[in-house]
């Protein structure tokens, strides 16, 4: 797909992913409100939501969810935004994702599997598991 995009478009897309990584909530939300696809993915299948969750930006996670981001999307490695938030031990992002309906058992590894693999009992508890 990237073969069809010109350099300017690719640079813009990279900038949007950088906004998600950096937690630039208001700026990113403005672009989404102006028509940027909220579920746009990079070359690894990471969505804006997955990147925001992985980089521990709960306000960005909440803003993307409020704009319809698909919490069930998985990247090319089978990971979800919820699993990313669990790995980063970000309870605010976890709560926002769970409140939006994210499934702790979705993905491979799932959020539950991630918490168990990394021996994160407090994250299992955040998922309502033990």
From TrEMBL:
ANK repeats lie at residues 77-109. Pfam families: Ank_2. It comes from the Bacteria. The keyword Iron-sulfur does not apply. The keyword Glycoprotein does not apply. PROSITE patterns: ANK_REP_REGION, ANK_REPEAT. Keywords: ANK repeat, Repeat. PANTHER family: ANKYRIN REPEAT DOMAIN-CONTAINING PROTEIN 39-RELATED. This is Uncharacterized protein. The lineage of its organism: Bacteria, Bacillati, Actinomycetota, Actinomycetes, Micromonosporales.
């Amino acid at each position: 797909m990237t073969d069809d995009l010109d350099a300017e478009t690719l640079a813009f897309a990279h900038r949007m992913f950088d906004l998600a990584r950096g937690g630039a909530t208001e700026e990113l939300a403005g672009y989404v409100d102006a028509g940027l696809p909220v579920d746009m993915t990079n070359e690894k299948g990471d969505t804006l939501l997955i990147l925001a969750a992985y980089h521990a930006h709960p306000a960005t996670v909440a803003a993307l969810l409020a704009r319809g981001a698909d919490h069930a999307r998985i990247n090319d490695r089978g990971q979800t935004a919820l699993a990313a938030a669990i790995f980063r031990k970000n309870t605010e992002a976890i709560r926002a994702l769970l409140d939006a309906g994210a499934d702790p058992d979705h993905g491979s590894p799932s959020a539950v599997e991630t918490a168990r693999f990394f021996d994160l009992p407090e994250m299992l508890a955040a998922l309502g598991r033990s």
